[in-house]
Amino acid sequence: MVSTKSLIKSMAAAALCAVTALIAGCGGSGATDPFATTPAAVTPPLVVNPGVLNVYSGTPSVVTISSGVGPFQVFTSDSVVLPVTQVVGGAAITLTASAVNADQVVTLTVRDSVGQSTTVAVTVKPSPLIGALTVTPTTNTTCAGASASIVNRAAICSSESGVASVTLRSNATSVLANRQVRFDVVQGAYNFVIDQAGVVLAKSVTILTDQNGKADAVIRMDAGAPSQAALIRATDVTSGNRVDSSFTIVQATNGTAVLSVVPKEWIATGYFANECPGGSGDYIIYGGRAPYTITNNLPNSFTLSSGGVSSSVSVTVAQSGGRFTASHVYSQNCVGYDATFVITDSSGLATTATYSVKPGSAARVATTIAPSAVTLNAVGKSAAVVGPPAIPANPGTCANRTVNFSAATGVGPLTWSLSVPPSVATLSSFTTGVTVTTGTGFVGGEIITVVAIDSANKLSTATISCN
């Protein structure tokens, strides 16, 4: 038999469960409180990194916005030293400082779309002045004759070594000591020597400048490397400023430079279909026994020159490291052609080089003149006006008028002309075209034809009529 006290306890528990079920459930998994308040959205703070940085004149740097509400804007305290684009595209700000002679402190203010702002302290430093990057072969090189090249380019035989040098100075021209300079192989069969034993080689090396601001890197040509042009680069690690240079690797066998020519081939490609460009290419000869004779198998298409002497058939180069030039002219309705130059030394050894000319592929659009036609009204007899009558200087003519014409899509330079004598109209040029000035001979019924001819001999016309 259930006691009255137990029954009261059970009823109280059931009532409590019913009341609290809406809040946390009764023995279940819980429920949402209908009276709870939804928390307000939190605005992300504006965060920009880095907050302090050094930049060098002319070397781009980036400031990153990592938090905030876009879009963003940036303002500079000195737009001359550190100009910026006010509206930020995305979340990165690219900075390129102007040239300065001493450190300049500039404050950048970054602002987001909800009004939050923060600042970045930027110190603009002068960029170092990097001297010419020179490459010097070893004093006992077998390519010594080529080192005094008339094109002033160092030549190093395969398997031999040389030194690449560069000097760093401040804007005040004082030398920069203990500065890191990175040397890189850009092109060519060579490496940098890393260790004193000359065993470890790499395509890049970092050298500290000495007390004179000079950095030297030892380079070694690959064994048996064929003759070729080589490119090298030196970069100031701190600022990112860099300088490039070139030298020539000469193929050598048993310590003797092999007769060779650099480059082995030259290709000139036009832009427009069925049209071959004009141009020229230089070739440098190494090795063998000077002097050298160069002969041309397409004398009707190319001209050879060396030492101030030109010929379509053959020329002579006096020394190793000497140069000859092949030249050709622009041609229409061209299918392309290939020339072979035979280089023969004084002992009878021979090698060859080629020069190829190819037409382009783009469709040429004819030259157009704007405006294409202009009609001028002849000045009639003076009309009655309030005040003294206005009497035209040349009644009945279209004289003393100016019309500007400009041309587009042609291959410059353009040649302009008129179909009439100077008494009718004259020409004068301006930046993008010509001005036609009419004379007293331009009367009713007369038509002036303006003619433009581009360098490809394509013609276009425009007209001026006197009504």
Protein architecture, described:
The chain is 5% helix and 47% strand. The protein has 467 residues and is mainly beta. Strands 9, 10, 12, 14, 15 and 17 form a 6-stranded antiparallel beta sheet that branches.
Topology:
Blueprint: H1 4-24, E1 47-49, E2 52-56, E3 61-67, E4 72-76, E5 87-88, E6 92-95, E7 104-111, E8 117-125, E9 129-130, E10 134-137, H2 144-147, E11 155-157, E12 161-169, E13 180-187, E14 190-193, E15 201-202, E16 204-208, E17 214-221, E18 228-236, E19 242-250, E20 252-253, E21 256-257, E22 260-262, E23 265-273, E24 275-276, E25 279-286, E26 292-296, E27 303-306, E28 309-311, E29 314-317, E30 323-328, E31 331-332, E32 337-344, E33 350-360, E34 368-370, E35 373-376, E36 402-408, E37 415-418, E38 425-430, E39 433-438, E40 447-453, E41 459-466
Parallel strand pairs: 2-8, 11-19, 23-33, 35-41
Antiparallel strand pairs: 1-3, 3-6, 4-5, 4-7, 7-8, 9-12, 10-12, 12-17, 13-16, 13-18, 14-15, 14-17, 18-19, 20-21, 22-25, 24-31, 25-30, 26-29, 26-32, 27-28, 27-30, 32-33, 34-36, 36-39, 37-40, 38-39, 40-41
